[in-house]
Design a protein that fits this description.
globular; four-stranded antiparallel beta sheet
Length: 116
């Protein structure tokens, strides 16, 4: 079955950086577009970014454009999210999701906290 394991979260200062990873198994990773989504405390799920199956195209929510970069390594079955210029409002539980949007399969999430 689909298994997605996120890692790389933690505590960062405002203006800092983190790199999230998502190890995928149980399906043909290279055939699927993938997304990152997040859920902040007390808020709904927010789509953050998506990438085509071959990495040829990427999309971002307005709130992260210019600061976050999504990428993938199909040889390693791994999805990444490079997060720069972090803001306190980026604090959330981050999930990788199969497909576009937030309706696919999710991992367990990795917590990102941005605070001084």
């Amino acid at each position: 079955q689909v298994q997605l394991v996120e890692s790389g979260g933690g505590l960062a200062q405002p203006g800092g950086s983190l790199r999230l990873s998502c190890a995928a198994s149980g399906f043909t990773f290279s055939s699927y577009p993938m997304s990152w989504a997040r859920q902040a405390p007390g808020k709904g799920l927010e789509w953050v970014s998506g990438i085509y199956s071959d990495g040829s195209g990427t999309y971002y929510a307005d709130s992260v454009t210019g600061r976050f970069t999504i990428s993938r390594d199909n040889a390693k079955n791994t999805l990444y999210l490079q997060m720069n210029s972090l803001k306190p409002e980026d604090t959330a539980l981050y999930y990788c999701v199969t497909g576009w949007g937030t309706t696919g399969s999710w991992g367990q999430g990795t917590q990102v906290t941005v605070s001084s």
